[in-house]
Amino acid sequence: MKILIAPDSFKESVEALDVCHAIQSGFSQVFPDADYKLLPIADGGEGTSAVLSYVLGGRWKEVRVHDPLMRPINAKYLLLENETAVIEIAQACGLHLLTTEERNPLITSSYGVGELIADALDEGVKRIIIGLGGSATNDAGLGMLMALGMTFHDSDDNTLAQDGGALANLQRLDATSFHTSVLETVFEVACDVTNPLCGELGASAIFGPQKGASPQQVNDLDQALTHFASVCEQHGYQNYQDIAGAGAAGGLGYALMSFCQAELTSGFDTVAKVTNLSQHIADADLVITGEGKLDAQSAMGKVAGGISHIAKASHTPVIAICGSVDGLQPAQTSQFDVIMPSIQKLESIDNVFKNAYHNIEITAANIAAAIELGQRIK
Fold first, then answer.
1. pLDDT at 38
2. Domain containing residue 312: CATH number
């Protein structure tokens, strides 16, 4: 029996590869001779580089860059053999890099993301896969673009600061010193956010509060983003502000489309393509996937839902192991042959996270035992 184990990470508890090992350990207690293929999967967010490194190899490069508050930090990205770099923006401008008290999208910057991109370009890459997600910024990529050599000026021709609040003062931009390799490089942006740049569903309104913005700051930031897009259009750049995903990562999606000619695609679809997921599923007798919480969002571009869709198309049985199940409709549960929550008992959330690996292993063993019992029943 060929078993493909292809889960996402269980957020805040178990990385995707460790989820693979837990499931294999549980199943092996019942089916020790099965042919197991471990294929950790991600959806473009945090952990995507690690998944691709496991599947494709490559080498990590650590770079000294600036965090969202322009403090020096070490960040890393993945270099693959085919002149490709994989960059997670959260490495340089992630919300996790700030304390709750430090969160303020008026002053945070994506400058470090540009430093990572510049370093990859200097390495000679011809293709950059960028995972958008988890940013602490709302600067529409202003900082990133500055790190790549572009300059922005106010009405007095002073150079702007590199943060979200500075956008409101923009009057002129200058691409004279923009990194020469940007337009010679293919940018593929893994993005599962469909928000536009501005408005009620825009970057500021939807994501600003979790980044520390007050209601008034949300309004100010939204107006600043609108102004930024207007000035960019006046300088001949195509206006992508209403395109789905433009508001991702505080407007980084917009900047990457407008200035780097990037293509925004589903994060899951990007990872699935790079890892040849469809072929692995077609070759399997059984697919086991999973994620920390299986809910209505799982069917909308997330790992478990995406895998179930491919598996159903190839008529391969698919089992989902998850931490919990919440709000799934019958049509969504029918995507899977089996859905099994792994939490074994009521306990604090800290203990749930602490025991996640063990719970996944036990659940996998019980599922395997049920399959074996079914094979014996006449």
1. 96
2. 3.40.50.10350
Spatial CB neighbours of 262, under 8 Å, sequence gap ≥ 6: 130, 187, 188, 189, 256
Cα dihedral value 13, 14, 16, 20, nearest 10: -150
SS3 category, 324 = strand
The crossing angle, in degrees rounded to 10, of helices 356-376 and 16-28 is 40
**Average pLDDT for 80-96:** 94
* CB hemisphere CA count around 376 (13 angstroms): 6
The residue among 243, 268, 293 that closes a domain is 268
Q: What is the CATH number of the domain that holds 252?
A: 3.90.1510.10
Q: How far apart are CA 21 and CA 18, in angstroms?
A: 5
Q: For residue 305, what is the enclosing H or E element? A: helix 303-313
Which structural domain, as residue segments, surrounds residue 164? 48-268
Per residue in 187-217, pLDDT tens?
Answer: 999 887 889 999 999 999 999 999 999 999 9
**DSSP β-ladder status, 286-295 and 2-5:** parallel
Tally the domains of the chain.
2
User: pLDDT, tens digit, for every residue of 209-242?
Assistant: 999 999 999 999 999 999 999 999 999 999 999 9
Q: How far apart are CA 238 and CA 275, in angstroms?
A: 32
Greatest alpha-carbon span in the chain: 85
**DSSP E strand stretches across 230-349:** 263-265, 286-295, 318-326, 338-341
What angle is formed at CA 156 by the lines to CA 254 and CA 197, rounded to 5 degrees?
15
Question: Strand pairing partners for 84?
Answer: 80, 127
